[in-house]
Amino acid sequence: MSRAPALVVCGASGDLAGRLLLPALFHLEQKERLPGLDLVGFSVEKWSVEQFRAHVRERLQRFAPGFEDGLWQRFASRLSYVPGDFSAQGVAPLARAVQGSAIFYLALPPKVFAEAARGLAQAGLARVESGWRRLVVEKPFGVDLASARALDASISEHWKEQQVLRIDHFLGKETAQNILVFRLANGFVEPLLNSRYVAQVQITAAETLGLEGRFSYYDGAGAIRDMIQNHLMQLFTLAALEPPPVWDADVLREHKVEVLRAVRPIPAKDVALFAVRGQYGKGRSRGAEVPGYREEPGIRTGSTTETFAALKLYVDNWRWKGVPFYLRSGKRLASDVTEVAFQFRAPPRMLFREIDGATLDPNWLIFRIKPNEAIDLVAFAKQPGLTLETRPVTLHTAYLEKDDVEYAAYEQLLLDAVEGDRAPFIRYDEVDFAWQLLQPVLDAWKSGEPEPYAAGSEGPDAAAALLEPGHRWRALS
């Protein structure tokens, strides 16, 4: 029986735990950031503690760089295991094993979230008499507005909102957090990020990968549900929110909700003016021929699931009135790029001759998350020579310096969960407003088909028609 704070991984035998959570915890152990924390595995396998530790060791040897036996011995001493399920009888042994403060991480299929939240609570594990209790829920938070509300109703029946930590690993990425810091801590940046100086904002999450075995999940989800409703919407709110008066979790999350409240609704009859979808066909990716989406193993014949989605959103408030925010995400695209990019308006007059008569590219402030975390400012300087001609220059700063200690996204968020910092977690009303914005798109896409695009390309041609005159997508390649 443990009285130390415990992190209980529900679904400890699963893929999420083995690939991401346990390696993140192991690296935190390596960095000596898990003092006094017991790690409890909970899943349906009838394992002994020794069998569970053997399973964890195998996962860490495969997925945790820097694995070493000495560190493993220290980490293994924290590990215990309770077999069971979320029935009253099945969860009772867990309730006896965890007596003090605890986090319950639902590393489970989404369809089990409500059952797990109810089962844990009915066993008394949501009660705070003997310490704090927190419930970590992985995305997706529903598959549409109705299911998100049903899930929230099930969870909130047994857990208070301040106990629930909805996790989106994009919010643990260093550059995502740095969007806020760079915006709000620099007097030469914040005054420029508004409709007077910014012409457009592009938020991109492009992947060269295809399904990588995730067909059973992805073919029922698609790009909107898998990436845009959660990851890109979070980056969008960070890019657009007003400066909070104090650094406080609830104040910060309220400002994120204010952004979503201010977004102009997408009319059901005009979805095609605000949203585009595509599906990759065969082509070349990473130098190899790859099949189209419908030829991938496990995909339904004639599937209309979108593997590319792009949105145009307007934030109708004083800061951003009239500035389009473009969000796009897709698989089997030209390169792996995740970034938030602000394009500045051009000066009133062009005073200098342009290179070879070409049109000057605009100025951009770019927060890059992939492939390498960095901040870039695309500006113009004089071309060397006898004439006043310009050329683009990129002022580049890599996010990490030589001696910086890097924490992966899950490491950051697990630490925040343990320490009770709710700022990087999602409040339910954020989820609800995001689904409200996207529900007309989901409804419209129940009919028709996505536009095909070649694997290894920039995406469907229709994505260009989404842009306002004079705008163009930033090249992925």
Model description:
The protein folds into two domains: 6-138, NAD(P)-binding Rossmann-like Domain (Rossmann fold, 3-Layer(aba) Sandwich), CATH 3.40.50; 171-408 and 429-465, Dihydrodipicolinate Reductase, domain 2, CATH 3.30.360.10. Helices cover 33% and strands 22% of the residues. It contains 14 helices and 17 strands. The strands form three sheets. A nine-stranded mixed β-sheet has the order 16-15-14-13-7-12-11-8-17. A six-stranded parallel β-sheet has the order 3-2-1-4-5-6, with helices on both faces. A hairpin with a 2-residue loop joins β9 (283-285) and β10. α5 (113-122) packs parallel to α6 (145-156) and α9 crosses α10 (249-262). The longest helix is centred in the middle third of the chain and has 19 residues, at 222-240. The protein starts with 5 loop residues before the first strand and ends in a 12-residue tail after the last helix.
- Residue runs with pLDDT of under 50 for 5 or more positions: none
CATH architectural category of the largest domain: 2-Layer Sandwich
| Secondary structural class | alpha/beta
Strand proportion: 15-25%
Gap from first CA to last CA: 55 Å
- Strand arrangement, major sheet: 16-15-14-13-7-12-11-8-17
CATH classification class of the largest domain: Alpha Beta
Report the helical percentage: 25-40%
Number of domains: 2
Average pLDDT level? 91
Spatial extent as radius of gyration: 24 Å
Largest sheet: 9 strands, mixed
Q: Report the total helices.
A: 14
DSSP strand tally: 17
Q: Might you state the CATH topology name of the largest domain?
A: Dihydrodipicolinate Reductase, domain 2
Q: CATH superfamily of the largest domain, please? A: Dihydrodipicolinate Reductase, domain 2
Bulk shape: globular
